[in-house]
Design brief:
InterPro entries: IS701-like, IS701-like_DDE_dom, RNaseH-like_sf. This is Transposase, IS4 family. By secondary structure, the protein is α+β, with helices and mostly antiparallel strands. Helix 2 packs across helix 12. The protein starts with a strand and ends in an 8-residue tail after the last helix. The protein is built from twelve helices and 13 strands. The radius of gyration is 24 Å and the shape is globular. The chain folds into two domains: about 210 residues, no CATH class; about 160 residues, no CATH class.
């Protein structure tokens, strides 16, 4: 199993429908007043969210991987906690959104969200602002949404590390972490996982830089009249795309990482197949802890280079063991499809986007109830069915 991080989106239209209909699309019994009462209870009447599902993922799944994600909830009301104007993939434009960062327990056959955090933009944190008018507005918003003083703006990758630490406190076993480039491009996030001895497979952009694995730091001659020079790489790092292109298409291999359900005469087994190549590289960056000899740590650079494409389409960095088979490395890199599957279930079937509350605690209670519901559904799906008596 692994852990994965994700994001999802909901439109303002989804929320308007949720005011009048339940998660199943039907009007709630008792009409609008009943729906309002439920929202009020979520805002004020439930115990704190994180404690309500303490250790839930470990009971439903035996973790193989951990995933990270971001879920964007497009809201029309700026008073809702954490709402700010941000780009929404669902809307295809900039709009009022909430962003929830989630951690999912993932296997090849099942997955479930096990932790959530609400991302607070800087406009919701008066300690990050200097303009008196903006500070006053942020404080007023925080008071209306009942945001606790300790809840401040933190980068999404820091929220992900916070949840990883929380899950470790619950006794969740250490498993590889999988996430998209929103996290993989943050060298500090990768270093945070390394400091925790957590392996990862993280998507990155081709513009990230690295040295070849055989690059060696060199110490310049000591001039005798200044501080002694420290070992440094004589050449600048290269972007990942250049390293892969230099290796060439022939360095790749065809890999089938899983079998889907869409069978065709040309693909009767529904195999998901592409060409991949894996190189050993030394990612560059100021936030990366160097070895005692000042060399940078070595890791895997995985690239997907589909047949017929002039260049690679996707890139990942991974600290999985040197001897890992290429197919296993690819399978883990591609496991994030489970996160998108989770978001579809959470939104379309379990009402993740249907929360209309106005408080910070209410939001966390709502997502806790939704992930409890998803965990129960996952457990029911993996429970062997008992034949009905004749």
């Amino acid at each position: 199993m692994s852990a994965a991080i994700g994001r999802s989106y909901a439109t303002a239209a989804d929320r308007r429908q949720a005011q009048e209909h339940g998660p199943d699309g039907r009007p709630p019994r008792g009409g609008p007043s009943a729906a309002a009462a439920v929202r009020h209870q979520l805002d004020l009447g439930l115990p704190p969210g994180p404690a309500a599902a303490d250790g839930l993922g470990g009971r439903v799944l035996r973790p193989g991987r951990a995933g990270r994600g971001r879920h964007r909830l497009s809201q029309g009301r700026a008073a809702s906690p954490g709402v700010a104007r941000m780009y929404s993939g669902t809307l295809g434009k900039v709009g009022n959104c909430q962003i929830g960062v989630s951690v999912h327990a993932v296997t090849d056959w099942a997955s479930a969200a096990v932790a959530w955090r609400l991302f607070l933009p800087t406009c919701w944190d008066d300690t990050t602002l200097t303009d008196p008018t903006e500070v006053a507005a942020a404080r007023a918003r925080r008071e209306r949404a009942a945001i606790p003083d300790k809840a401040r703006h933190r980068e999404k990758w820091r929220l992900a590390l916070d949840m990883i630490d929380e899950l470790a406190g619950w006794g969740m076993p250490v498993r590889p972490v999988v996430a998209d480039a929103g996290y993989g491009d943050a060298a500090a996030f990768r270093q945070g996982l390394t400091d925790r001895n957590i392996p990862y497979v993280l998507a990155v952009k081709p513009t990230a830089t690295a040295y070849p694995a055989d690059a060696v730091p060199v110490t310049a001659p000591y001039p005798g009249n200044s501080r002694r020079p420290t070992p440094a790489y004589p050449d600048p790092p290269r972007d990942l795309k250049s390293l892969v292109m230099a290796a060439g298409r022939r360095a790749g291999r065809s890999v089938t990482w899983r079998h889907g359900t869409h069978r065709t005469p040309a693909n009767p087994t529904a195999g998901m197949r592409s060409r991949f190549l894996a190189l050993r590289v030394r990612p560059a960056g100021r936030n990366i802890t160097r070895n005692p000899d000042r060399s940078l740590p070595v890791c895997w650079l995985l690239a997907e280079w589909p047949v017929g494409q002039p260049e690679p389409t996707d890139y990942w960095l991974s600290t999985l063991p040197t001897g890992i088979p290429l197919r296993d490395l690819v399978r883990l890199a591609k496991i994030r499809w489970r996160i998108e599957h989770d978001y579809r279930e959470l939104k379309d079937g379990l009402g993740l986007d249907h929360f209309e509350g106005r408080t910070f605690a209410g939001w966390h209670r709502h997502v806790t109830l939704v992930r409890v519901a998803q965990a129960l559904c996952t457990q029911l799906r993996r429970t062997p069915k008992v034949p009905a008596p004749a």
